[in-house]
Amino acid sequence: MAKILVVEDDPALQKQLEEFMRFEKHTVEAVGDGADAAHRLLISKYDLVILDWNLPGMTGPEVLKSMRGSGCATPVLMLTGKGNIADKTEGFDSGADDYLTKPFDLKEVGLRAKALLRRPQAMLTGTIDIGGISLDPHAHKVFLDGAEIQMLPKEFALLEFLMRHPGQIFSQEALLESVWKSESESSIHTVYVHVRNLRKKLSQDGKPHIIKTVHNMGYKLELD
Questions:
Q1: What is the pTM of this model?
Q2: Most buried pick, 39, 57, 58, 108, via CB within 10 A?
């Protein structure tokens, strides 16, 4: 099961894509505005983006350039009515991984999505190292000064998210949305508990916690 962002401003087509991907057992978020999509891509992690070309707020290529510029390597399937070579070239140059011209069969979208979802492990960046903490997203392991630290799955997911966005402040709501999106029983208290547990596990004698609380704003991962 993958987490997919569908960005399509045609309500009928957006609903069809959303329902089809959910039928394929994926978790789906759907928006119809390019600026909204760009914001979500900054604060949330997705396994695949299905992106329309013509959007209000920001065009599809503009959203693509924004996400690639921020270092986001999530695979993108571009949807568009533009079928000539020049337009396809612009789409790929903006960072698209695949291109599907309207009208299309939903089964074709499903096949393209499956192909793109097989890529991420090879496309992800390698080990992330910050302040003595080393996180390996492939092996799903965390090391502190060379010693492995045992992590629960959500603790690992939360730490990975923060380490991929060092210095950025995230509210408890934003972290809940990004890490626990598909789990309706989760709450703000869930985020608090996981941050507390991470701090205990990553505590280093004489050093301040790497996960800092920003008063009235949320949390950020930062070194002094």
A1: 0.55
A2: 58
pLDDT tens digits for range 163-187: 878 888 889 888 888 787 655 567 8
Residue-wise pLDDT for 114-143, tens only, equals 888 876 444 445 678 888 899 887 678 899
Helix, strand or coil, per DSSP, at residue 100: strand
In CATH, which superfamily holds the domain spanning 3-122?
A: Response regulator (3.40.50.2300)
Residue type, 12: A
- Chain region(s) in the chain for CATH 3.40.50.2300: 3-122
Residue 145 tokens, joined: 């000064």
CATH 1.10.10.10 fits 128-221, yes or no: yes
Place of tokens 């941050």: 195
